[in-house]
Amino acid sequence: MFTSTLPRQNGSTVADLPTDLFAAIQSLKKELNAVILAHYYQDPDIQDIADYIGDSLGLSRQAAQTNADVIVFAGVHFMAETAKILNPDKLVLLPDLNAGCSLAESCLPDAFAKFKAQYPDHIVVSYINCTAEIKAMSDIICTSSNAVNIVRQIPEDQPIIFAPDRNLGRYVMAETGRDLVLWQGACLVHENFSEKKLVQLKIEHPEAEIIAHPECEPPILRHADYIGSTTALLNYAQKSPKLSFIVVTEPGIIHQMEKETPGKSFIPAPPMNSCACNECPHMRLNTLEKLYLSMKNRSPEITLPEEIRIAALRPIQRMLEMSK
Ligand code: SF4
């Protein structure tokens, strides 16, 4: 059982890696009473060793319910921060502290405070992909799984600011018919898909259904047969009678799609350039080696000022209540 008095073994390096990383991580999991939570966009190796794999909503729920003493969060910083907000007394580890998020970084607290001050009658609904400071300035948090449902529950005469993702905000506007004031943030992965290449791919695979994440730009979403969160895309691929899919989100999700739907094929949608820019560079900073070292060293740890944590907790709890 981990307690805060256990010594930390700082300074371990890649040279100290055991030959069987999977076995070493399993053993550390028992020693620390740790749970490994991993996002669908993580490397397949990390997904395979995780106790729970999910999207932001599923991971938040798991973080809120866990009995583990240590949460190892294989995802990006704002996700591990959310786990810490929900579990102030637990040790929350992020394998690489530099695993940030371009969307979260597109909404900085000072600028957002000024923006918010222009709309004093509005409440703030923020997508979970934002920093703890932005969550602390929000009334309700949402994820791509529940954003439409949450906005539908807010009285029609209540004006709303939606932050930080303008594409998810536009999608929610289209689905609910509500007029939202949007913060103009975007995700570098989802705004980088090429409409021209997507159309070309569909011509080459006319039988394939296009399934897309709502963080994509409207010209991409126009071509989608189905739009949903990563979990919703996975469920859709399982239930659809179609055998092939063009997947317009971070291609890490394809590992689970292939595992859970044998016999079906998944084609990653192409980015604008001939690079791997449809892979999230932040998510991909985590590796199995870093995950092992973070558990062995009990570091890097997520910490938060208590006043920010308390202020950020309220809108997350509202989300969890509203999406039961
Ligand atoms: S895929 Fe986009 S929204 Fe998700 S962590 Fe990476 S940069 Fe952030």
What are the key terms here?
324 residues, alpha/beta, 4-stranded parallel beta sheet, 15 helices, binds iron/sulfur cluster
SSE layout and pairing:
Blueprint: H1 21-32, E1 34-39, H2 44-49, E2 52-54, H3 56-65, E3 70-74, H4 77-86, E4 91-93, H5 102-105, H6 109-117, E5 123-127, H7 132-136, E6 140-142, H8 147-153, E7 160-163, H9 166-176, E8 181-182, H10 195-204, E9 209-212, H11 218-221, E10 226-227, H12 230-239, E11 244-248, H13 253-260, E12 265-268, H14 288-297, H15 306-322
Parallel strand pairs: 1-2, 1-3, 3-4, 5-6, 5-7, 7-8, 9-10, 9-11, 11-12
Helix pairs in contact: 1-14, 3-4, 4-15, 8-9, 12-13
Task: Walk me through what this model shows.
This protein has helices at 21-32, 44-49, 56-65, 77-86, 102-105, 109-117, 132-136, 147-153, 166-176, 195-204, 218-221, 230-239, 253-260, 288-297, 306-322, and strands spanning 34-39, 52-54, 70-74, 91-93, 123-127, 140-142, 160-163, 181-182, 209-212, 226-227, 244-248, 265-268. By secondary structure, it is an alpha/beta fold. The strands form 3 sheets. A 4-stranded parallel β-sheet has the order 2-1-3-4, sandwiched between helices. A 4-stranded parallel β-sheet has the order 6-5-7-8. A 4-stranded parallel β-sheet has the order 10-9-11-12, with helices on both faces. Helix 11 (218-221) links the parallel strand 9 and strand 10. The chain is globular, with a radius of gyration of 20 Å. The two termini are 31 Å apart. The model is unreliable at 1-10 (pLDDT under 50).
